[in-house]
């Protein structure tokens, strides 16, 4: 079955968008729009998903066939935007308000689908994302823990420190002492 819209797993950043666009162009397809998690092709060049799946897999991506998997990947992409919203909004929305606005669906529905397909709750996935962003900021050694906590909307440095230990199994100071701290890419979070 050929289609003009493909949903792609593991697209987490602008470089992923460019990589997927290049893959499709090199394979002879004409993408008209490539966004996090989706490729829209020119109406004259539909594609059989199974034909491009091996190319995508080789580059670390994958075609998503099921509707629940597609929604889960869309939620993951929206959560990346939500992290930026948290960082920049004067009065940020709650996670549930942000997602229900984005998807015009109840948070309960989104949460059930996400939990079932990702084997992880939205909240735990968001916490993992936040901790990876905290690791990035810690590795630059430009801000104090309190400044990072404020930037990431934690109630205190202690709250951030406790959550960091829960997620990583290490304290913030242990992480800072590590010469080669281990960070995860967003597609490895769940």
From TrEMBL:
Keyword entries, A-Z: DNA-binding, Transcription, Transcription regulation
InterPro entries: HMA_dom_sf (IPR036163), Homeodomain-like_sf (IPR009057), HTH_AraC (IPR018060)
Domain HTH araC/xylS-type residue range list: 77-178
PROSITE patterns hit by this protein: HTH_ARAC_FAMILY_2
Species this protein is from: Hymenobacter terrestris
Keyword flag Transcription regulation: yes
Endpoints of the signal sequence: none
One Pfam match: HTH_18
The protein's name in its UniProt record: Helix-turn-helix transcriptional regulator
């Amino acid at each position: 079955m050929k289609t003009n819209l493909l949903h792609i797993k593991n697209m987490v950043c602008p470089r992923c968008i460019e990589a997927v666009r290049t893959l499709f162009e090199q394979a002879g397809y004409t993408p008209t729009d490539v966004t996090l998690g989706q490729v829209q092709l020119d109406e004259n060049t539909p594609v059989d998903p199974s034909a491009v799946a091996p190319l995508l897999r080789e580059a670390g991506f994958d075609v998503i066939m099921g509707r629940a998997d597609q929604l889960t990947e869309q939620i993951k992409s929206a959560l990346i935007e939500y992290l930026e919203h948290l960082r920049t909004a004067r009065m940020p929305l709650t996670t549930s308000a942000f997602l229900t606005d984005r998807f015009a669906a109840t948070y309960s529905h989104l949460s059930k689908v996400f939990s079932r397909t990702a084997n992880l709750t939205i909240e735990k996935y968001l916490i993992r994302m936040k901790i990876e962003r905290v690791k990035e900021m810690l590795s630059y050694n430009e801000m104090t823990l309190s400044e990072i906590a404020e930037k990431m909307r934690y109630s205190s440095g202690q709250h951030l420190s406790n959550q960091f230990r829960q997620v990583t199994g290490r304290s913030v100071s242990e992480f800072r002492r590590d010469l080669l701290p281990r960070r995860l890419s967003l597609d490895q979070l769940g």
